[in-house]
């Protein structure tokens, strides 16, 4: 049943079915209405005719009865007459019944007659003639009234007396049944005729429209792309009905309007996919060329793009070009394209020095097979649309462009969408290339000193540890030289920082030419340098030190005032394993010998005597005891250095620093941190420091953020997370107000373990910063591996950026990277107003340094701007 109903509704949804049902519905409605009306009319006429006939029969019977009475018939004759009359009319459907009144029965005795109903009694009493219609029967009641002329033969009756009643009933039901049957038969025949006629008309109507609609569907089915849609034309469709033709013309007009806004689905899908590629991972940055190849392959799925090019400026030297071809092209095509690029750059540099192309690299996405000919494209085939991504500060920006098929201009709407995709694509490529450049700089300067290009302090410490391990395994010797320039401060003060940098650069070159290729040279910091001499004992090390001192003393530079400047150095030597058995002690020994050389009058070399070795380590032991005693007696003291918003000067952040109270003197962290880490108590000192700092936060009602500088070794202590979190709860300090600074004093061998603890603390709501960012090679690795919220830029870069372009470029790279990652920045070592202004101009968020505030035992109020000293 349900299936039949569904089929009926499906039929009604078709054009032919709808027309058929409409015709049938209208025809049957009219026919049924006419049939009902005619049937009712016929029954009414039949009823009226029956009433008239019954009246005639009643009066005839009454007249005949009077005639019989005039002839003087007796009672038996009258009853015979009545019975004959009844039988005579019964055949025609009329039933006669005679009732005699009470006066007649009294005079003539009881008469056998049917029982009277209410109607008969009423007629006998009132004497009026009445007609009823009841259940298809017409009933006429005619009273027999004695007239004056009848009294001659009816002496016993009075004039006007009702002698009896004639009851005539005519049952019309048989006639109505026959009539209704005939009407039903006629209705069925007519309905079949109407059905056949409706089928014919609906089929003719449907075929007339279906031909046009079939053509309409075929044209629509052929539309599989926007190009097919543009060729769609419905203007020649003729349905045969003016209204439908007008509707088709409106549809055709709508198609024409849609052509102007239609865009290929593939293009939109590619644009959506392109957005997902804005998640730039370290793998994308590392393999950026493969990434661009994939992009070029992707865009060729929707439009024909021949080439994509990146143009980057290398400082002020010139440009490096990377050209990515979708398919291999002939050498002549490459040369033509390089000429086009050169013209483009020359136009951008019009009125400036000549544009120099340093290097052009070509890459191919799809390689041609052995039997495939190389593509030979003309300049017209490669229409280069360029988007400028010039990043002037630092000058590592460039231009990226893409060569696409030139017929885009024929479709303005499609051109707009494609142009948007190209803009997105080019910005993506430019961002990846720029971040790749930043990453290269960061990774280089993470291990190198930006000024001298020598290895820096962090990589030196790692190499020293490595060399101790290597020498231990092979039972070998090596030596360490510690150098400090004797007169560098005088050079800086007399001739300026710019000449001082030139002086350090010249010293670095002299040192590099004074040692063997296998030796390791590093700038430890400021005017201090270190040299690791593998497989070298004391005598050889002493000889190398003398050669270095001699070469430096012969180095002559001309200062800006025309005077000559020479370099002298004090060199300390320590040998493994003669003077120490671990990296820390070996460095300590070389550092002490360097100060011994200075005490001897500078410009000389110092080797440790046997008794000096013991004295040095005795001093170290005393410092160890100082640290342990301070820890035991809880003489760890918190100090707080303000960190100000460089735009407003407001202080809402403090860095927690550690001091040791020794009698009436405060020992700075630089004098004991290395010792505390070496003897394994640094985490205990951190606990004591943090608890005292938290107590002071609560006591002073400080509501700002607190930066806590911790060694990675403290972070990976198993109980650290629980204890710090509990301390924060005990003192009512929200975790998000605490920022832990990751330092790189010691290399963490298990970065995965450190990452786990950092993520666990992050889950508790604590924040993280990288301290001295850029000073160590692990900084960038930390940034990639850990959820970092803040970058503290190495103070040496901030201090020297105004006098050295490399430092400035490096700071700008860090700021750009941090802004790309959504990470806040803090500049360390802000020591004058000029540096502060430069920091603000670079877009750095916060500043720290003696110009903004020195460390103290209390917090600076955050409600008032910090007053800085001039």
Descriptors for this entry?
870 residues, alpha/beta, 28 helices, 52% helix, disordered C terminus
Give the topology, please.
Blueprint: H1 2-13, H2 15-70, H3 75-90, E1 94-100, H4 102-108, H5 118-126, E2 130-134, E3 137-145, E4 162-171, H6 173-221, H7 226-230, H8 242-259, H9 265-276, H10 282-286, H11 288-299, E5 305-314, E6 318-327, H12 331-348, E7 357-366, E8 383-389, E9 398-404, H13 412-447, H14 457-474, E10 478-485, H15 488-495, H16 497-514, E11 520-525, E12 528-534, H17 538-554, E13 556-558, E14 564-566, E15 569-576, H18 583-599, E16 605-606, H19 610-632, E17 636-645, E18 651-662, E19 665-668, H20 673-678, H21 682-700, E20 705-710, H22 712-715, H23 720-730, E21 738-742, H24 751-763, E22 767-773, H25 778-785, E23 790-793, H26 795-800, H27 805-821, E24 824-827, H28 833-841, E25 846-847
Parallel strand pairs: 6-7, 15-16, 18-20, 20-21, 21-22, 22-23, 23-24, 24-25
Antiparallel strand pairs: 1-4, 2-3, 3-4, 5-6, 5-9, 8-9, 10-12, 10-15, 11-12, 13-14, 17-18, 17-25, 18-19
Description:
A hairpin with a 2-residue loop joins strand 2 and strand 3. It contains 28 helices and 25 strands. It has an 8-stranded mixed beta barrel with strand order 17-18-20-21-22-23-24-25, surrounded by 6 helices. It is α/β, with parallel strands linked by helices.
């Amino acid at each position: 049943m349900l299936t039949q109903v569904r089929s009926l509704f499906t039929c009604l949804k078709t054009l032919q079915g709808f027309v058929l049902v409409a015709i049938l519905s209208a025809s049957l409605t009219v026919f049924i209405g006419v049939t009902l009306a005619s049937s009712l009319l016929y029954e009414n006429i039949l009823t009226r005719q029956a009433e008239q006939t019954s009246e005639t029969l009643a009066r005839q019977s009454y007249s005949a009865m009077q005639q019989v009475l005039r002839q003087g018939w007796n009672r038996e004759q009258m009853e015979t007459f009545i019975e004959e009359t009844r039988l005579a009319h019964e055949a025609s459907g009329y039933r006669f019944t005679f009732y005699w009144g009470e006066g007649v029965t009294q005079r003539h005795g009881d008469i056998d007659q049917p029982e009277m109903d209410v109607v008969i009694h009423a007629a006998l009493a009132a004497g009026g003639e009445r007609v009823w219609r009841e259940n298809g029967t017409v009933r006429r009641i005619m009273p027999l009234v004695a007239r004056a002329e009848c009294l001659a033969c009816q002496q016993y009756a009075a004039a006007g007396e009702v002698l009896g009643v004639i009851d005539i009933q005519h049952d019309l039901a048989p006639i109505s049944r026959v009539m209704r049957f005939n009407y039903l038969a006629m209705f069925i025949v007519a309905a079949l005729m109407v059905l056949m006629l409706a089928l014919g008309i609906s089929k003719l109507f449907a075929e007339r429209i279906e031909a046009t609609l079939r053509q309409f569907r075929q044209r629509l089915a052929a539309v599989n792309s926007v190009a097919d849609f543009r060729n769609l034309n419905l203007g020649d469709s003729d349905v045969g009905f003016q209204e439908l033709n007008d509707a088709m013309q409106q549809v055709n007009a709508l198609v024409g309007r849609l052509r102007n806004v239609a865009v290929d689905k593939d293009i939109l899908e590619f644009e959506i996919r392109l957005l997902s590629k804005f998640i730039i991972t370290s793998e994308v940055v590392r393999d950026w060329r493969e990434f661009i190849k994939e992009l070029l392959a992707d865009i060729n799925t929707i439009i024909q793009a021949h080439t994509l090019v990146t143009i980057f400026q290398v400082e002020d030297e010139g440009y490096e070009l990377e050209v990515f071809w979708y398919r291999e092209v002939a050498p002549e095509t490459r040369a033509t394209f390089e000429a086009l690029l050169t013209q483009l750059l020359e136009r951008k540099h019009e009125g400036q020095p000549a544009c120099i192309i340093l290097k052009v690299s070509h890459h191919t996405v799809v390689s041609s097979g052995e039997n495939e000919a190389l593509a030979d494209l003309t300049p017209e085939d490669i229409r280069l649309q360029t988007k400028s991504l010039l990043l002037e500060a630092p000058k590592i920006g460039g231009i990226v462009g893409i060569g696409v098929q030139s017929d885009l201009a024929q479709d303005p709407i499609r051109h707009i969408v494609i142009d948007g995709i190209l803009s997105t694509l080019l910005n993506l490529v430019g961002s990846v290339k720029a971040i790749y450049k930043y990453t290269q700089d960061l990774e280089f300067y993470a291990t190198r000193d930006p000024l001298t290009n020598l290895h820096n302090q962090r990589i030196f410490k790692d190499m020293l540890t490595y060399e101790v391990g290597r020498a231990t395994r092979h039972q070998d010797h090596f030596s360490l030289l510690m150098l400090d320039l004797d007169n560098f401060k005088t050079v800086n003060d007399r001739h300026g920082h710019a000449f001082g940098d030139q002086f350090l650069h010249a010293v670095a070159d002299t040192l590099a030419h004074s040692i063997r290729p296998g030796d390791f040279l590093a700038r430890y910091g400021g005017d201090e340098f270190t040299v690791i001499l593998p497989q070298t004992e004391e005598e050889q090390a002493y000889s190398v030190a003398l050669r270095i001192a001699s070469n430096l003393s012969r180095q002559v530079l001309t200062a800006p005032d025309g005077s000559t400047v020479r370099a002298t150095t004090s060199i300390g030597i320590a040998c493994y394993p003669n003077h120490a058995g671990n990296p820390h002690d070996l460095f300590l020994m070389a550092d002490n010998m360097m100060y011994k050389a200075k005490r001897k009058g500078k410009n000389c070399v110092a080797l440790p005597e046997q008794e000096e070795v013991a004295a040095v380590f005795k001093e170290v032991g005393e410092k160890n005891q100082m640290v342990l005693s301070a820890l035991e007696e809880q003489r760890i003291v918190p100090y707080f250095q303000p960190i100000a918003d460089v735009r407003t000067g407001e202080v809402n952040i403090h860095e927690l620093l550690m001091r040791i109270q020794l009698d009436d003197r405060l020992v700075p962290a630089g004098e004991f941190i290395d010792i505390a880490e070496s003897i394994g108590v640094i985490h205990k000192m951190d606990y004591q420091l943090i608890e005292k700092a938290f107590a002071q936060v609560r006591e002073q009602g400080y509501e700002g953020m607190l930066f806590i500088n911790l060694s990675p070794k403290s972070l990976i202590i198993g109980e650290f997370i629980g204890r710090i979190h509990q301390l924060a709860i005990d003192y009512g300090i929200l975790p998000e107000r605490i920022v832990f600074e990751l330092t790189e004093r010691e290399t963490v061998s298990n970065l995965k373990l450190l990452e786990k603890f950092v993520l666990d603390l992050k889950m508790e709501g604590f924040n993280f910063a990288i301290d001295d960012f850029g000073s160590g090679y692990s900084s960038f690795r930390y940034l990639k591996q850990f959820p970092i919220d803040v970058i503290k830029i190495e103070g040496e870069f901030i201090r020297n950026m105004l006098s050295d372009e490399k430092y400035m470029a490096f700071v700008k790279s860090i700021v750009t990277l941090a802004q790309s990652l959504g990470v806040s920045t803090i500049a360390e070592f802000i020591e004058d107003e000029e540096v502060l202004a430069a920091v603000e101009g670079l877009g750095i968020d916060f500043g720290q340094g003696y110009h903004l505030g020195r460390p103290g035992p209390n917090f600076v109020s955050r409600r008032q701007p910090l007053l800085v000293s001039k």
